[in-house]
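Friendly challenge for the regulars: who can give me the structure tokens for this chain first? No prize, just bragging rights.
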Amino acid sequence: MVALVAVLALVPDAVLDVRYATARNFTGRPLYPAPAALLRRPAAERLAKAAAALRKDGLRLVVYDAYRPLSVQREMWKAKPDPRYVADPAKGSSHNRAGAVDVALADRDGRPLPMPCDFDEFGPRAAHGAPGAPPAAAANAARLKAAMEGAGFLSYQDEWWHYRDPQAPSWPLLDVPLAEAAR
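First reply, four minutes later:
Bragging rights claimed.
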């Protein structure tokens, strides 16, 4: 099995808000048995680099999602079969390869900062640079993007929160349950 790294091992001040471990997500039900944020080491190291840059400005990362088992991807596809927002499990996503992370910003005390829209709001407001976002939210999204891209991640235009390691497409799909992957 591929060894995955817990995000908190390299970014101990990250705020975990793993939405898929709760009903507060687009499916309306928990998809993970417990909150976990795991990545392949290269992606975790990139995330640590981004977190260090943000920390200098008194900011912390909020992590919504990271590695996602392929079986969970299938459940998401059933709920929202739209490839703009949910990858077709036949192809998989960088999340299923442990090479993508969904993040936002928090202040030094862990309080979430305003962002253009809520995580997993599928629509035009979620896009980078979407018009109509409050100025503070737009600035926070731009600051997040600069830090993540500065660490080597690639952004996804339709979701301000989604970043992937450029190597991720070459990594194999994984369907290891989170409880096993976290060991």
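The radius of gyration is 15 Å. The first helix runs from residue 7 to 10. Your move, everyone else.
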